[in-house]
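Sample pair:
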Amino acid sequence: MAENKYRKIKIKAGPKGWGGPLVIEPTESRNLIYSVTGGGIHPLAAKIAELTGGTPFDGFKSRAPFEQIAVCVIDCGGTARVGVYPMKKVPTVDIYPTTPSGPLFRFITEDVFVSGVRIEDLEVIE
C-alpha cells in the first residue's frame, strides 16, 4: 500500500480569534490550500500547504470547484468571504480575529471556521 503523501494538521484560533479547532488532511481529490487574500499565496496558506503536502492555490486570480478545496485561507474582517466558504462547508481560516456576523453568519460555525490564526497556531498531528 502506498504511503499517504498528505499529513493532518490542527488549526486553532489565535489570540482574540474564534472557532475551531479545525483538523485538515488533504486528499487526492480535495488537495487545494486555497488562498483568497488578494496578494498571491498568503504566508499562512503557504505554511499550511508545506505542512500538509497540499497544493497552494491563488483563489483570487483563478477559481476551482469547492469540492477540490481542503481549506480556504481568507483575510476578511467584513461579511463577504467570511460566510461564502463556510456556507459551502469548506473549512475556512481567517487571519483576522473575526466572529460570525453578516448575512451568512448562520453558516459560520466552529466546525468549519477558525479566525485570528497565525503560523504558530498550526500543529502537525501524527
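The mean pLDDT is 91.
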